[in-house]
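Team,

Forwarding the record for the chain on the shared tracking sheet. I've put the sequence and predicted structure together so nobody has to dig through attachments.
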Amino acid sequence: DLTPIHTPGHSPGHVVYYHEKDRVLIGGDLFMSKKGQLKRPIAMFTANMEEAVESAGIVKELKPKVVSICHGCDVEEPHKQIDKYLAQFSLNYNIF
């Protein structure tokens, strides 16, 4: 019951998987995390950082309970911090 969602940026074909019943987003390399906070993916291994940050907007749409991340610990209720993440890291994001 996993739904693949194209989230380019880290790599051109990067995808995340969403399990709707449990509201879990398997984020792969879409993010890193530190102390429960979403962080950008590793820059030296990310093909297009701006696109990767824009792809992170999927969290606003899905509002998962948990995002599971390859580099770092799971982040609970990531939608509560996604506006701050986008404002901090995106060149094109406007919170108003």
